């Protein structure tokens, strides 16, 4: 059975309410009891959970901090470019975010490439060579950002708050793509979501680079954005094609 067909085969899925009408009825009765109890209404509405969340938010520290660039510590080389703007650390944080995302994107495509090699029936429609090109392009983008951070006297190995954030946000993409049970189409769904975020990320970074007076960087980021737009188009086309073929299979 082709992977695309196996992925949506009919089987003994017992997760839905319809599998056990008797238990479903009991559960819905319990729901009614909760609704009748005034004390429990807040639980049903999630108000108690919200209240607990508010307590934790009030007591929480920020995700982390942005280390001061060497240039601000007075240890920069003469070639290092001065950071302009009132709060240049915001730019450094967003650069570190892009670096984390592109590094993660490289790992994501490592997993997509492996899936394309493993699932030959599906990958006939998907070019492994082009997938590898996208992987290498993500790695080049990570390197570009690393060099930009170094030019600014910043430490590209530092985990800044936004770098931390995207690391956590995109964890699911890599988990989904690395899961041996997911098909190539399912893996491409994760890649498609990542590419949508990636394109948005570069657009924002270009605007910020111009605002901070780094036109040369903004131009390089514009080139990266054009490559990202191409990634998005290819992944979207492959994903659409595999899904269409899967729905047409008998
Ligand atoms: Fe990309």
Automatic annotation (TrEMBL):
Lineage: superkingdom: Bacteria
Pfam families tied to this protein: DUF892
Domain (Ferritin-like diiron): residue spans on this chain: 178-250
PROSITE patterns to which the protein is assigned, alphabetical: FERRITIN_LIKE
InterPro entries: DUF892_YciF-like (IPR010287), Ferritin-like (IPR012347), Ferritin-like_diiron (IPR009040), Ferritin-like_SF (IPR009078)
Name by which UniProt lists this protein: Ferritin-like domain-containing protein
Organism expressing this protein natively: Steroidobacter flavus
């Amino acid at each position: 059975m082709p992977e695309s067909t196996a992925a949506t085969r009919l089987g003994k899925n017992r997760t839905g309410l319809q599998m056990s009408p008797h238990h479903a009825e009991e559960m819905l009765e319990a729901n009614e009891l909760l609704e009748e109890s005034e004390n429990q209404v807040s639980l049903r509405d999630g108000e108690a959970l919200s209240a607990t969340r508010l307590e934790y938010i009030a007591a929480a520290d920020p995700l982390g901090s942005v280390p001061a660039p060497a240039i601000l510590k007075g240890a920069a080389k003469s070639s290092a470019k001065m950071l302009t703007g009132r709060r240049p650390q915001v730019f450094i944080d967003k650069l570190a975010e892009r670096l984390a995302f592109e590094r993660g994107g490289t790992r994501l495509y490592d997993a997509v490439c492996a899936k394309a090699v493993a699932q030959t029936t599906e990958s006939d429609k998907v070019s492994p060579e082009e997938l590898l090109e996208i992987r290498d392009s993500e790695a080049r983008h990570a390197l570009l950002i690393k060099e930009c951070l170094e030019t600014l006297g910043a430490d590209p190995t530092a985990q800044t708050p936004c770098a931390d954030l995207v690391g956590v946000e995109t964890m699911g993409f890599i988990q989904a793509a690395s899961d041996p049970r997911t098909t190539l189409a399912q893996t491409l769904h994760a890649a498609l979501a990542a590419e949508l975020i990636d394109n948005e990320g570069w657009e924002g970074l270009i605007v910020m680079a111009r605002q901070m007076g780094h036109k040369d960087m903004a131009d390089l980021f514009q080139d990266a954005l054009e490559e990202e737009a191409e990634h998005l188009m290819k992944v979207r086309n492959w994903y659409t094609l595999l899904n269409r073929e899967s729905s047409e299979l008998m």
